[in-house]
Amino acid sequence: MSSTKRGAFVVIEGLDKSGKSTQASLLHDRLQDSQDAGDTAPPKVVLLKFPDRTTAIGKMIDAYLRSESDLDDHAIHLLFSANRWELASTITAYLTQGTTVLADRYAFSGIAFTARKGLSYEWCRAPEVGLPAPDLTLFLNISPEVAAARGGYGLERYEREDVQTDVRRVFDKIGRAMQEEGEGKWVEIDAGKNKEEVAEDLWRAVEPLVTGIHGPINRLWETA
């Protein structure tokens, strides 16, 4: 085992309107406050959001999600994956310098939202193989019915209750597979609680990683 500490990679996943972005922001601020670093030190924590809609690929994804364009299901899946690969080296660099990386969505969302369309689970997973693997994935568990009752629901392409129900089934499959295959820790958080309670549950899961991690950066689904 390496004696050098690196940053932790934490991913927050969940259905649309499960509170991911709110909780990711709260967790980012708490991690920032919990770690002491000098002015010249690397960032203590960075928050990434997928898809990153600021890149050239991200702008194509944004137009698709807003139903301003149509793309083949295979093509849009590969664009989502490419958007993550655009930041793979950035994630690795941050972790290596000791920075905690917090991601709002990641490869698991890409697989879940495409596989529910009927595409092969194995095909959906293949483009993600080799991406930096999270040390901890926090799945915000909420029923599609409760999510649908939250403000702003339905503004984007996938925000329909039937879609979210199917997506939830794929997320369950991913979570079971991650645990069985030892691909990093997958923890379900009850997102039906109030915002403060959810934030505390997230913190309890993340706090042990605050001081850093020993060992190499793993890669998703790579076999030795």
Automatic annotation (TrEMBL):
Question: What protein name applies here?
Answer: Thymidylate kinase
Q: Which organism is it from?
A: Rhizopogon vinicolor AM-OR11-026
One Pfam family here: Thymidylate_kin
Q: Which UniProt keywords apply?
A: ATP-binding, Kinase, Nucleotide biosynthesis, Nucleotide-binding, Transferase
Q: What is the E.C. number?
A: 2.7.4.9
* Record keyword Glycoprotein present: no
Q: Name one GO cellular component term.
A: nucleus
CDD domains hit by this protein: TMPK
